[in-house]
Amino acid sequence: MINVLYLDDELHNLTAFRAAFRRDFHVHVTTEPTEAVRILREQPIEVIISDQKMPTLSGVEFFELIMPDFPDPIRMLLTGHADIDAVIDAINKGQIYKYIAKPWNESELKAMVNEAAMLFHERKAVSDQGAVLLHRMQEARTMALMIQRATGQASGLDADQTAEINRHAAEINRLLAD
Amino acid sequence: MDESLSNRSVLFRYCRIAAVLVVLFSSFSVHAQKFIGTRLEHLPADYNLSLLEVEVVAESEDWVSFEQLVPNLGMGEGVEWMRLTLDPMTENGKLIEIQNAGIDDLTCFMVCDGKIIASYPGGIMNTGGDGHQFGTYPSFPVPLVECNELHALFRMQSNKPMIVPLRIAGPRKVLEDAHQRDVLFALYAGVMLVMLLYNLFLFLSIGDRSYLEYVLFIFAVGGTQLVLNGYGFIFGADQLPWLNLRLTHLFGVFSGLTTIVFVRNFLRLSRYVPWLNKLLNVYFLFYLLALLLAVVGRLEWSYQLINFCAAGTFLIIPGTIITMRKGYSPAKYFLLAFTVFIFAVVIFVLKDAGVIPYNAWTFYALPMGSAIEVVVLSLALASRINQLKRESVQAREEQLRVSQLNEQMVREQNSVLEERVAKRTSALESANSNIQNTLDELQSAQQQLVQSEKLASIGQLTAGIAHELNNPINFVASSAQSLRRDFEDLTQVIEKVKGMDPMDPGLKEEMIQLKEMFGSLDIEFTQREIEELLNGIEDGTKRTSEIVKGLRIFSRMDGDNFTMAQINELLESTLIVLRSNLKDHAVVEADMGADLPLVSCQPGRLNQVFMNIITNASQSMEDSGLAVEERIVRISSKTVESIGQSWIEVRIKDHGVGMTEAVKAQIFDPFFTTKAVGEGTGLGLSIVMGILSDHNAEVDVDTEEGVGTEFIIRFPL
C-alpha cells in the first residue's frame, strides 16, 4: 500500500481524505507541520499532499522546509485558492509534482497519487541501480588497483600494457560517474 | 390767406413804392450845381488861424486860391478862414450858400473895402431863432452896398469834415432848391417812416426779433441821412447845442450798431460766417468806443473811428456771398440791398473827393441808396420769414422723417436684438446641453469609478470567499462519497443480519461469519468514521450557509435603499466575508455593544464602508513587523450621548503604520493613495466619505505615525 501524508489545517478535509482513500492507500493525516515532519521521519512516505493556505505557513513553504531532509517523496499541492504565483514558483523550483484544485475529484486524485507513487518507485529503482553500480565500480576500482599493484610487482608488463589497463580503469570511473 | 401769396403781394407793394420814388426823383431838375470853390481863397498853414481876429484877417494879403471846385478844409479844433471875392456889381442881393449842414461853427463877415459891414452867424452852433437861412444849408445874403472890393470872410470850425460846396445864387433859386430838397427829404423821411411803421407793425404782430432790429436800423439809417442833411431839428436837437454838436456822431454810432445787430441776426453769421460774426463784435466795441469819445467831447476822434468802422460795411458783402453760397436764399436780397447802399456810399465819397461831379444824382446818392436799401431789405426780411417758415416746415418734416427713421431703426434694432438674443439663447442652450453632456459623462465616469472600486473590492473578496467556500464544499462532497462506501460496508452487514434466521441451526456459524465480517470491514472504525464524516458534513453545510448568509447581508440587493438595520449585524457579515482575507494577516477583536438600536441606513453601502476601513486596518499592519497574532484589529460599537443627541459609535482601531498629518488631510480625496501603482484605486476612502455623509454620519480619524490609526464613526439616531 502506498504511504500518503496529507497536511491540512482543516480537520474535516483530513477526515474526508482518510475516509475516501483509506481503502486504497496507507493514509497519514495531520493538521500540524511538525507532526508531519515526525511522520515523515517514522513512516516510509511516498507521496506528500499539502494544503497551500494554512495559518502558520503555506504549503510551498512547508515543502521548502522538508526538501533537504526528505527529498524523495513526491510532493503535491492542494489549494482552493488560486494562488497562481506561488504555484508557478513552486513548480519552477521543482518543489511540487502536481497541483490539485479543491474541491478534489476523488478518482483523479487517486490516479494522481498512484502516478506519483509509481514515479517515486521508478526514481527509487534508478537510485538503487545507481547504488549497485557504484558498489561494483568501487569493487572494480579496487580490483584495478590490485591488478596494477600486482603487475607493478611483476614488472613484467610493458608500458603499453600499463597504459591500456589505466585507460580501462578511467573508462570505468567515467561511466560510474555518469 | 396763403403765406407766400401775401409775401408776394408785399413784394409787389415795395416794388411799386420803389418805382414811384424813382419816377418822383426823376421829375426833379437834375442840372449840375455851379460850385465856385476856385474863387475861394485860404490863408497858408503858417498862420495861427485860431487866434486871428477878423480885422487882421480882413487886412491880410496872403490869400491863396483853392484848386478844387469843392474845397475840403478838414476838421478839428482848429479854425479855418476863407475869403470869397464878390463882384459888388452883379452879385449883391444874391445869396452865398454853403451846401453843408454839418459845419459846427460858421460865421460869415462881409468886408467892404476893408471894413466889416456885416457878420452872419451860421452852422450847427448858431441854428435856432435866426431867420437868415433858406432851408437847411447855411446861406448868407450879399449886402447891397457900393464897394470897390467886396469880400466875404468865413470863419469856420467843425469836428466833421469841412467840405465847402459853395455857390452864389439868387434867393429865389436857393429857396426853390431848398424847397425841392425839403420835399425830397420829406419823401425820403416818409418812405423811411412807412417802412419803419410797417416793420414795427410786423414786429408787433409776428414778434420776430429781426423786425425790431430792422425798425431800429431804419430809424438809425434814415436819421443819419436826415441829420447829415441838416434836418436834425426834426429830432429837436436844435434846442440842445450839446446834442446838436454830437448828433451826427450819435446817429453814426447808432446806425453802425443797429447794422451790426441786424446783419448778424439776419445773415445768421454765427452759423454761416463765424469769423465775420467775431469781427463784427470787434466793430461793435469800436462803435461803443466812438460813442464814448463823442460823449466825452473827443468828437474828431469819434468821427474818425466811426468812419473807420463804417468802412467795415464792405465786409458785409463777402459775408453775404458766403451765406448765399451756403444756400440761404434771403441773402440774395440782402446782397442786393447792401450793394446798392455801398454803391451809393462810393458815389458820395467820390463826389466829396471831387472825383465825380457834385450834382443832384451824386448828392442824393446816399439817401436814395439808403431808401432802396431799406426797401430791398424789407423784401429780404420777408424772404427770410418765408425761409424761416420753409425751414420750420422742413424741420418739422425732417423731425417727422427722423422720428420715423428712428422708429424704423428702433424696430430694426429690436429685431437685430431679438435675433441676437435668440442666437445667444441658442448658444447658451447648446452650451448648457454641452455642460449637461459633460456632467452626464462625468457622472457616468464617477459611477464607473465607484463601480470599479466596488468590483475591485469584490474581486479582492472573491478569492478569499472561494477558498472559504471551497473547503467545506470539498470535504462535504468528499465525505458524501466516503459515506456511501461506508454505508455499503454497513449494508453488507445488514444484509447478512437480514438473511439470518433465529430458527436456523447454523446460526452460530453465521454469527461467527458476521463477527469475521465485522473484523474485516473494521465496522467499529467505520462507525466512528461515519460519525466524523457526518460531523464534517454538518459543519461544512453550516459554514457554507453562514458564508452565504454573510454574503447576502453584505451585498443585499436592497442595499442602496435606506432601511432599518442592526449595525452589529452589518459588521459581523463584513467580518464573515473578510474572514479568509484577514485570516493570514490579522486578528479581529470585536466588542459589539448589546441591544444597539436599529439605524436607518443603506446596509450594502455601509458594508462597503466597514470592509474598506477594516481591510485598510489589516493592510496597515502588514509592514509593521508584528507577528500575525499581534496584528489586532479592534472593532467596537456602542451607543453614546453627545451634544444632546444619541449616536451609535463604531470604532475600528489598528496598530499599524499610522499616518502623517499631511497624509491624513488627504485620505478622503479621490485618487489619493499611499499604495503602489496598480494596488489601489485611491477611491476607497473617498467613496467611504461619500457614503457616510449620505448617512449624516460623523467621521473622526485618530492617527499617529508608527502607532496606529483609529476610525471613529458616529451614526445619528
Describe what this molecule looks like in 3D.
The complex is a heterodimer of chains A (178) and B (717). By secondary structure, chain A is α/β, with parallel strands linked by helices. Chain A contains 6 helices and 5 strands. Chain A is elongated and about 75 Å long. In chain A, 30% of the residues are buried. Chain B is of the alpha+beta class and 717 residues long. Chain B has 3 domains: 3-28 and 177-399; 37-169, Sandwich (Immunoglobulin-like), CATH 2.60.40; 563-716, Heat Shock Protein 90 (2-Layer Sandwich), CATH 3.30.565.10. In chain B, helix 3 (171-206) runs antiparallel to helix 4 and helix 10 (331-352) packs antiparallel against helix 12 (365-498). The longest helix of chain B is centred in the middle third of the chain and has 134 residues, at 365-498. Chain B is rod-shaped, with a radius of gyration of 70 Å. Residues 1-5 of chain B have low confidence and may be disordered.
Task: Draw up the topology in text.
The complex is a heterodimer of chains A (178) and B (717).
Chain A: E1 2-7, H1 11-21, E2 25-30, H2 33-42, E3 47-51, H3 59-66, E4 74-79, H4 84-92, E5 98-101, H5 106-154, H6 159-177
Parallel strand pairs in A: 1-2, 1-3, 3-4, 4-5
Helix pairs in contact in A: 5-6
Chain B: H1 3-27, E1 40-42, H2 54-59, E2 64-65, E3 76-86, E4 95-98, E5 105-112, E6 115-122, E7 139-141, E8 150-158, E9 166-169, H3 171-206, H4 209-228, H5 241-266, H6 269-272, H7 274-296, H8 299-311, H9 316-325, H10 331-352, H11 360-363, H12 365-498, H13 507-521, H14 523-554, E10 563-565, H15 567-583, E11 587-592, E12 599-601, H16 603-620, E13 632-642, E14 645-653, H17 661-666, H18 684-694, E15 698-704, E16 708-716
Parallel strand pairs in B: 11-13
Antiparallel strand pairs in B: 1-2, 1-3, 3-8, 4-7, 4-9, 5-6, 5-8, 10-12, 13-14, 14-16, 15-16
Helix pairs in contact in B: 1-12, 3-4, 3-12, 4-5, 4-12, 5-7, 5-8, 7-8, 9-10, 10-12, 12-13, 12-14, 12-15, 14-15, 15-16, 16-18
